[in-house]
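We emphasize that the prediction below concerns an isolated chain of 365 residues; any contacts that depend on oligomerization or on bound cofactors are therefore not represented. The input was used exactly as deposited, without trimming of termini.
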Amino acid sequence: NARALIVRELGGPFTFENVIVDDIRSDEALVKIEASGICRTDLHCAAGHRPVQTPAVFGHEGAGTVLEVGENVTGIQPSDKVLLSYSICRTCKQCCSGNRAYCEKILALNFSGKRQDGSSPLTLPDGKALFSNFFGQSSFSSLAIVNGSSLVKVPSDTPLDLFATLGCSMETGVGAIFNTLDVQPGSTVAVFGVGSLGLYAIMACKLRQAREIIAVDIQPSRLELAKELGATATINSSEGDVAEQIRELCGTNGVEKALDCSGVAKIIETMIDSLGTRGKACSVGSNADTHISIDVHKHFVKGTQYVGSHQGDSDPQKMAPLLLKEHSLGRLPLHKVTTFYKVNEFQRALDDVESGKTVKAVLTW
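Result of the prediction step, given as a token string:
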């Protein structure tokens, strides 16, 4: 009774097939999906770079309209417009202290592929269970059973296609700047890797009125787009000593804040090397086996910090209204990084992302 993009074997293609949607539980809602962002995490899981099973339905940047609501889901009614984000337990120490991005059950709730009772929200027509409930949603499906903690209610006039990506990449890029690095007016910032996540971060730096916003990438077209979105300087990382160029631009012994969106060890090391005294660097993603080398002496003499940030330390319930307001004021040009594709154009969307033609692909249903 729904259509979904299914990966039947790791490394295999996404195929558009029929699926059966289970009845909702008391802590879930049934959502008609209207838009789904394509995130690198979906592709890494489908390729087998993370411990998942097949057949599977991924997708974790969904947006749509609520059709049914379980009795224990509060603040949500049928016909409400919602964005979908990551799932949390709401009861652990981190959830109760306002650090929901670090829920102690984050892996089990978002990457196990099943509900906590072991059941699957989606099955194939022959009854075989699908690895689903991905990030509490599996939004590569026309209908999604969504965990109550993943639901973010938004105004009825919200452009769901533009804001679908809030659920992961948007809140991660913006949140890393607003929350983790806490960029302040007049500060200097370097962003390494300006794909969609890095470009969201560039926009956030501009919103925070940073004095120097340095974009670092290897693709000239991405660097030009970064300039359009607020970068005050760009560095092609294939040309010269990146850390030295950053020091020259900042006019000190390095940059105050730095964000890596590439996950590449060598680039992370360069980012840390580019920090000035008491500077702070942040990573928001990498492959599971990524290791880096740090000059410990330089690290403590300069008093630098290197931290990780999951989901940009964001609470989507707070991030959504903040970014909706900025967009309504014309200060968040999401359309410049987003390309829309019909769901049956999924392969073309993937090809365009891989070729660099598209920055952020969003599927519309």
